[in-house]
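The protein record filed here.
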Amino acid sequence: MFAPLPQIDAEPLERADAARNRERVLCAAARLFEERGPDCVTMEAVAAEAGVGKGTVFRRFGDRAGLARAVISETESKLQEAMIRGPAPLGPGAPPVERLKAFGRAYLEFLDVHAPLMLAAEGTAGTWLSSGVYALYRTHVSLLLEQAGCATSAPYLADVVMAPLAAPTFGYQRKVRGLSLDEQIQAFADLVNRLTAR
């Protein structure tokens, strides 16, 4: 049995009533985000749905972006677990180029379901780029690029590879360019092939 993954900004141990309230707020937020879309949900509406005071929601999550990050974190943790410890090619054991493609496919599939929530979680511009989650993915991609022969360019190219996986880019490709999920997955694989060709 593996030890649980360390979590960035992990919450300290909390009282049982605080834990119950947190769970009620997260369930209410997830339900409202799904029904109305994240842009149409206020912190006050979440508090009312959860049956707690709005001060409780603001103190615990800060703002809607913080609440959206908390809602999405469990799902994203499963993706991270599969990437770090799951079966190949997403997990260890496959050649680096195949792992890069598998990561791109998995993250694009994740965005296909959760892009609106990810956009809400990003909050102000650049939040995702400065987040611990982005740092984890970027490090993973950089190591795979290095193993694939990109050597000293790997750190820079990691940001290039991550660019199509940002929620705004995904949404632009889907809504403005009209690319389906499969077309974005194929384009990502083509990008990886071109960057790692020798």
Remarks:
- The two ends are 39 Å apart (CA to CA).
- The chain is about 70% helix and 0% strand.
- Residues 13-62 form a domain with the Arc Repressor Mutant, subunit A fold (CATH 1.10.10.60).
